[in-house]
Amino acid sequence: LMFTNGALYLLSFTTNQTYLDSKFRACVQFYLCAAVVNFAQVHGFPKFTKEYLQKTVMDPAVQRIFGGVLLLLGSNFMALVALLLPEAAALFSSVVYLLRSVGLSSVALRIIASLEGTLLDGHGNPYYKVAQYAAYAEVATGILLILTMLTPRRNLILMVLYWQFLQLRFVLEKATGNTSGVLHLGFAYVDQRITFYLSKGPGVLMTSYGFLKSMLARQVALPEPGAKPKMCVVS
Length: 235
What we know:
By secondary structure, this protein is mostly helical. The protein is built from 10 helices and no strands. The longest helix has 27 residues, at 17-43.
């Protein structure tokens, strides 16, 4: 049901925004239901301990649940792609495993061959770069939400909360020393693309972008030892 509604939203040619929003919302709702079930299977019943909290907060699947909840505030094409990519990889990996278990290895191999290097690796497991592709889509979502502020489809609350969500995940990667994490690499890639294009324009554009980068870097800077942590805010 999640993928059915997702496909109807992503691939539909209708301009009926009410229809599209209903399919988007249904897809996100089914995603959240599946994510909660998976959370219970992986982490068990919630425990109010420091170790349990650290384990769950650092789980990318748990982090995506918070992102999914935010999408109930408004639809966004790229955000749905970011949610569904890891789920699609997991689904096809499960299908491959099932086909092998019932003796249909030849069919499983054909699926692997068609999806190898995109959603699956050569063994039929989720491709390791799928998480990175999803991170690219998440960063693109943040940028699109800013750009849509110039259109009638603007959603200020979603834009602010989604950037807070990205900021928090970025800080978590940084706090654990994972500066090669998927979100760090996602922002680095976008930064390279923006810098490349702005370098061909007037110097004032690069100056303004440099100021914006410095401001954002301060927002995700870790506090000095002994210093009081800063609130997570959007300037």
